[in-house]
Amino acid sequence: MLATVHPHKLKGEQVAPASKSSMQRACAAALLHHGTTRILNPGHSNDDLAALDVIQKLGAKVQVENNALLITSNGVDPIGPNMNCGESGLGIRMFTPIAALSDHTITIEGMGSLVKRPMHFFDTIFPDLGIEIQSQKGYLPIKIKGPLKPANITVDGSLSSQFLTGLLMAYAASGTTDAVIHVQDLKSKPYIDLTLSVLNAFGWKVQHHHYERFEFLSHPALPAHIAYTVEGDWSGAAFLLVAGAIAGPITVKGLQLDSTQADKAVMQALKDAGASITIKEDSILIGPSMDVDGHPSHLSPFEFDATDCPDLFPPLVALAAQCNGITIIQGVRRLAHKESDRGLTLQTEFAKLGIRIELEDDRMLVYGGTGIHAAEVFSQHDHRIAMACGVAALCADGPVTISDAEAVNKSYTDFYGHLQHLGAKVDLD
């Protein structure tokens, strides 16, 4: 699909999409919960749908009820020998340890970029947990046979926190109170905070000591019926907020300001860039920078450490492109194993738009304020690249056409529709 985004000012209100990070964790917890779970405000991105498919393959029953899902489960009890996590990196890394709670032989598959993303972690850790594993030299497909036997292990958290999320959920559901997970050099700590928040909401008790030692505590029996509301997605909303800062003002609703989501940190970058921000209890009004007389002024370059929130790189590059000067974003090493090598992809596609990006070890330098040019760009099958280019196009000197624009369906199915709702002209072919 091609999406052509024309330069345009935005106005109006938009509710943020549901958080796929929250939704997928809620699906996993609902599978592990013996009883019924009602998930309110469920997401419908490709990753969310993949998670729902996985939990059904692992034994849960899912019913759709208006803007809610009713999930009935008796724990992990696979109905077949296969499960497919689509293109979800979180899905494959979280559900694989959970699937290993059963004694069935299961082949775990993925699609698209996921087949090229390394999964060596399982080859290293699973034998210590009594799990038989066969992989393609650390890549998909993976065949496993449990059951997982919780043990004291040490996990390298430097590549991704998603592996740890799966282990925390599997250990918690196993009922262990003896085993301890030690973690070295954990990145993306806020995502682990989100995992612990979901576990706690369902009734499991997990505590950590400086994110280096995770212990599992005894707890009362979980309620037979649990309701969980999926919060708004700061990852997707980051694109709306940046769009408001460069082409607004707009109002974004549905976000929790006390959220544990890592990408809430986008607010600090927007403040540092000088965007006009008014925060109310249930909304964020955001627009371009204003001078002391209330007239629009240029956004300022900023410095930001995205090591713990690498998904913010694409929207931050779209923001930095409109800042007069050099913006420095730290944490480039976290980008190599995403849907694309995002550091190089951002450099390549934004160069087509006239924006120079330099990669220096773990830093990205974005030379902003030089103007966004009309161009044809390629999402490189990466949802966040497609959205970053779509947002940047709002301030271009002509239309920007994005090929493979449907990549946004992975996380934010309604992205182009939401831009149109805010007044943007978007042609879809």
For the record, the CATH class of the largest domain is Alpha Beta
Number of strands: 24
Q: How far is it from the N-terminal to the C-terminal residue, by CA?
A: 6 Å
Oligomer: single chain
Helix amount, in percent? 25-40%
Number of helices: 12
> And the CATH topology of the largest domain?
UDP-n-acetylglucosamine1-carboxyvinyl-transferase, Chain
Major sheet summary line: 4 strands, mixed
Identify the overall geometry: globular
Strand content: 25-35%
User: Any low-confidence stretches, pLDDT <50, length ≥5?
Assistant: none
Radius of gyration: 22 Å
Domain unit count: 2
In words, what does this structure look like?
This protein has 429 residues and is an alpha/beta fold. The protein folds into two domains: 2-17 and 232-428, UDP-n-acetylglucosamine1-carboxyvinyl-transferase, Chain (Alpha-beta prism); 20-229, UDP-n-acetylglucosamine1-carboxyvinyl-transferase, Chain. It is built from twelve helices and 24 strands. A four-stranded mixed β-sheet has the order 22-23-1-24. It has a four-stranded mixed β-sheet with strand order 2-15-17-16. Strand 18, helix 9 and strand 19 (325-330) form a beta-alpha-beta unit. Helix 1 runs parallel beside helix 3, helix 3 runs parallel beside helix 5 (162-174) and helix 9 runs parallel beside helix 11. The model has no long low-confidence stretch (mean pLDDT 95).
